């Protein structure tokens, strides 16, 4: 009778161990397969659902520091340095406009925009870039003097460039705008 009780007890423990191991493995796989993390200034990582990119507000369980996403899985981004973090990848277009005005003073008229490139827009820790199979245009954050927004378009004034402004039209403008503002207000 004691032997039968021991066998049943060991079998139950074994089944519970297997169930625990399977649940633990699923949780581990789920955490590794997540493709977006959020990192605040203190270095804490959060799940993507912790922030609303449209209004830029963190949920109550986070500290009130600004956070920006870090993408684990990235598409092939040309010229990506090993030490660069990728914060945004999405579709968009690049235009130029002739103007000496500051970006926040420029009014966008589609008829005055000169098309340059359509493809994938990426924000990394070092660059803002747009690329497709043929071309790559990089704008290092350190060379961007001023940013402006007009009807969903990002207007850039680069340091040392007097008459030409770059204009980005990005499909997912909420996260794009939030991340650029966070990177350029530090």
Describe the structure.
The structure is a single chain. The chain is of the alpha+beta class and 186 residues long. The protein has three domains: 1-33; 34-73, no CATH class; 90-184, Pleckstrin-homology domain (PH domain)/Phosphotyrosine-binding domain (PTB) (PH-domain like), CATH 2.30.29. It has helices at residues 2-33, 173-184, and strands at 36-40, 45-47, 51-52, 57-58, 67-71, 86-98, 114-124, 127-131, 136-140, 144-150, 153-158, 164-170. A hairpin with a 4-residue loop joins β3 (51-52) and β4 (57-58). The radius of gyration is 24 Å and the shape is rod-shaped. Residues 28-37, 40-48 and 55-64 have low confidence and may be disordered.
How many domains is the backbone divided into?
3
Coarse morphology: rod-shaped
Counted by DSSP, the helix tally is 2
Q: Which CATH C-level class of the largest domain is it? A: Mainly Beta
Spans where pLDDT lies below 50 across 5 or more residues: 28-37, 40-48, 55-64
The N- and C-terminal alpha carbons lie at a distance of 72 Å
């Amino acid at each position: 009778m004691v032997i039968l009780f021991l066998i049943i007890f060991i079998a139950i423990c074994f089944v519970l161990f297997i169930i625990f191991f399977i649940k633990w493995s699923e949780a581990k796989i789920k955490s590794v397969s997540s493709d977006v993390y959020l990192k605040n200034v203190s270095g804490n990582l959060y799940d993507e659902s912790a922030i609303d990119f449209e209004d830029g507000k963190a949920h109550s369980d986070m500290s009130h520091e600004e956070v920006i996403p870090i993408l684990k899985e990235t598409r092939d981004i040309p010229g990506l340095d090993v030490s660069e973090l990728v914060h945004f990848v999405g579709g968009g277009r690049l235009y130029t406009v002739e103007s000496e005005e500051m970006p926040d003073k420029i009014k966008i008229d589609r008829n005055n925009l000169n098309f340059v490139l359509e493809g994938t827009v990426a924000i990394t820790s070092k660059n803002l870039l747009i690329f497709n199979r043929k071309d790559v245009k990089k704008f290092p954050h350190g060379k961007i003097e001023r940013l402006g927004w007009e009807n969903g378009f990002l207007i850039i004034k680069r340091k040392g460039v007097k008459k030409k402004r770059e204009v980005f039209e990005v499909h997912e403008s909420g996260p794009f705008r939030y991340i650029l503002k966070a990177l350029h207000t530090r």
